[in-house]
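Risk register update: the risk that structure generation would not scale has been downgraded. Supporting records follow, first protein first.
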Amino acid sequence: MLRDKVKAKIDELLEGDIIERVEGPTTWVSPVVVAPKPSGEIRLCVDMRRANEAIIRERLPIPTVDEVLEELNGSTVFSKLDLRHGFHQVELHTDSRDITNLVTHDGLFRYKRLSFGFHAAPEKYQHIISQVIADIEGVVNIADDLIVRGKTVVEHDQNLHKLLARLEKKNLTLNGEKCTFGMGKVVFKGILLSKHGIAPT
């Protein structure tokens, strides 16, 4: 039963072009840990502890919630966008893939895309998304959460259109079910944002 679920998840990752099969000898192999979800589905987690020892981190800064909130001060209109599949939208260079090898009952695979488990992944992902939106006014992010703001509806809409055009140009996709547009208030990282400022949820 569990093997069937692992096989199905591997097939899903292969079909999504997130992993690829590995043939022949390899330098690195990390074990897979199966984490059950309340829905009955599973999540494949790779135990990257040994591999992480070999990864050189850039130590890129991740903004704090307070820093992001300061940029949102004085806004009256908000949109909250969620990038679909987060880390998996970032392709790994072929030279970096060998260290991501994982073993299952169905053989060896490796990631073609950034994934959870790499200790440098959050900071690298944050840096990449920050570079994508750097010159667009009224847009901030922490990881895959993007907030668009404006002091007026017109300003907000201009910022939103610029962001959507940039995401399309960079082939970054959104999770429509988790996006909200043109709101007078929005919850971001457990904090309620509105024209009145910030408040707890």
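Supporting record for the second protein:
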Amino acid sequence: MKIKKIALVTSIISFLATLAVIGIGFAEKKSEKTSNGSDLSQKEYRAVTLETWDETAWEVFTDKDNINYTTYPGTPGGEKYNPDLPATAQAFRQVKLVAGGYPRDVKYLDYKTDKANLKVLGVKFQFTYPGNNEVTIRPPREDKYKIKRTRDFISENFLDRNEAKATPDKRDPKATANSIDIYGLEFPGYTKAVSVWVCGRGNDYDMEGWLEDYKGDTHIIKFGSLNFVGWRPMSATVPDTIPQSRQVYPATRTVVFKQFKIRSNPKSTGDPVILFFDELRVLTDTFEIHFDGADLDFDKDDCDNKNRIEKALKDPFRPAKECK
């Protein structure tokens, strides 16, 4: 009997400890008071795949490409992007989509039906000299990756950042007074972590991701070392210091994934580096407060802003509202 009591007490203590940990982990958002009372809806955590690289290859650059980093090739008015940089005295790089090399541990894939359509992003590069070498992998400048960001200020002198230096006396006619177009992957909801499957070959490089918050500030998250062989899921936590919410509706302010950065370290060798990427995912809280009147739209921009999460999710059970 004493043994059973001890076991029961131990179980209760463990359960309470678990509740305490969960409470600490999810304490950043509390119930919201509305005109209909407090919205006590539970959190809506989801693992969402944002990029599979089955259709579009991303752009790859090195810091030895002899280009102006403020105006990469492929930007409006710039030179055409070349996915295969001819070898120079310092470096070379190539990028393409490769079929048949998907990670077998991605359980939800139906390999019998999807096998023919599954691809991965293949990247190859090499540096002649050791030192501070870096590679940038970013979404191409295409409409599917274009995101309209609204700023918290209005200025008649506001210039499109891609053309401000090239044509300082002209304002982009397509840009409104307080908005700008950026390129990347918009994270749906309040994002907690990012993961990507990487197939390495033992090259000692480090990888990081660049995020842009709703204010336009850039944040760097660390994925870690690429010194491993075979497929491995690499993940990085999105710190709470990155602002992703406001006190007004809609409360969620999305973060945009801008690019990967691969950097050499003192252990990096001069061997060619070959990497493959697949399944870029996020763990995100897609809950948004609901209240009487939330469906009222002032105009199309207002409707689109409130439906950013639904559009990014592309969930048939939670479809985005058609804005007119």
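The first helix runs from residue 2 to 25. On this basis the risk owner (M.S.) recommends closing the item.
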